[in-house]
Design a protein that fits this description.
Flag_FlgI; Gyrase A, domain 2; structural molecule activity; bacterial flagellum; Flagellar P-ring protein; periplasm; alpha+beta; 7 helices; about 35% strand
């Protein structure tokens, strides 16, 4: 298992060493980003799997407010002309309070539709078969940008009885395909931008320089001008030629390929035993050995029986057997000129992921690992 894991890391790193990617896959256009919108609503039509109104008072208040907006008064009832009105208690289990979330894509216009995610807010057990009532979706500025409504698609289910429950997925969350109707367009467009700014998803000085050189080489032959200027290691400013539109200009720039540079980094996840070693990781010459010490403690109590006609008592005498075993290990010299030698050296020792993690952390402590170690 260890050799398969390390071989996979080696193959992925070797493949990335000579792989060029498109600029649009490693950089975004500043100002063209998604905006998160959220709303609070009610789901109706559930088959007895909705919120318990006694445990979720906000669901009852929302239901009462919705019915009042439709001209139905359910907050109080009058028993007689002499008695004061008293509150009405709702006992339905077919309604659930939910939060509706979505990502508003850039340049989307009024009248278009988008998907939304619906998640239960109360103690509902399932949203299967429910329908979301018209819900306003607001952004961080408080303005309504979309309105969501429709039948909910739930992938999970939960079925059970008094002695056993069977569930798969999450039945308290679902999606509504094309369930939101856009009511307002997000301000800002490409035509209003005087300069176009590329923002790297993984900022790096070398990657920014390679993108800058690739764009200027293309622009020198295509537009007869230098159009890219670096601002810092994260952003590159583009001066759009006047005789071309911004959409075509960004399409041509985005298809250019560069080889991004990655930092020397080792990522360790001790919970899952995952070790990811970057391509540029270097290790100074060190000698490494790793021994596995296993200790087994076995309890074998013995019953002490007194002799016949004696006044002794039968007692249990504890007896513990401790066995210690340390498997033999080899000493390997790791001279990590490149990733291939590092993987070969670790394979010589024959370690499990937990052993690899311990060795890498010890090499980092010794100052021989020339990379950043990130423990998740």
């Amino acid at each position: 298992m260890t050799r398969i894991l390390l071989a996979l890391v080696l193959l992925l790193s070797a493949a990335c060493a000579h792989a060029a990617v498109r600029i649009k896959d490693i950089a975004d256009i500043k100002g063209l980003r998604e905006n998160q919108i959220v709303g609070y609503g009610l789901v109706i039509g559930l088959n007895g799997t909705g919120d318990t109104l006694r445990n979720a008072p906000f669901t009852e208040q929302s239901l009462q407010s919705m019915l009042e907006n439709m001209g139905i008064n359910v907050r109080n009832e009058t028993t007689s002309t002499n008695n004061p009105p008293r509150p009405t208690t709702l006992r339905t289990r077919n309604v659930a309070a939910v939060m509706v979330t979505a990502d508003l894509t850039p340049s989307i216009g009024p009248g278009e539709r988008m998907d939304v995610t619906v998640s239960s807010l109360g103690d509902a057990t399932s949203l299967l078969g429910g329908t979301l009532v018209m819900t306003s979706l607001r952004a961080a500025d408080g303005a309504v940008y979309a309105v969501a409504q429709g039948a909910i698609t739930v992938a999970g289910y939960s079925v059970g009885g008094q002695a056993q429950n069977v569930s798969q997925g999450t039945p308290t969350a679902g999606r509504i395909p094309n369930g939101a109707l856009i009511e307002r367009e997000v301000q800002g467009s490409l035509h209003e931008m005087e300069f176009l700014v590329l923002q790297l998803k993984n900022p790096d000085f070398v990657t920014a320089t390679r993108i800058l050189d690739a764009i200027n080489r293309f622009a020198g032959g295509r537009y007869r001008a230098q159009i890219a200027f670096e601002r810092d290691y994260r952003t590159i400013v583009l001066s759009k030629p006047r005789h071309i539109g911004p959409v075509r200009f960004l399409a041509e720039i985005g298809e250019l390929t560069v080889e991004p540079d990655t930092p020397a980094r080792v990522v360790i996840n001790e919970r899952t035993g995952t070790v990811v070693i970057g391509r540029d990781v270097r290790i100074s010459t060190v000698a490494v050995t790793h021994g596995n010490l296993s200790v087994r403690v076995t309890e074998m109590p013995v019953v002490s029986q007194p002799a016949p006609f004696s006044r002794g008592q039968t007692v249990v005498v504890p007896q513990t057997v401790v066995e210690a075993n340390e498997a033999g290990s080899q000493v390997a010299i790791l001279s990590g000129v490149d990733l291939q030698r590092l993987v070969r050296g670790l394979n010589q020792i024959g370690l499990k992921p937990s052993g690899i993690i311990a060795i890498l952390q010890a090499i980092k402590t010794a100052g021989a690992l020339q990379a950043d170690v990130i423990v998740q």
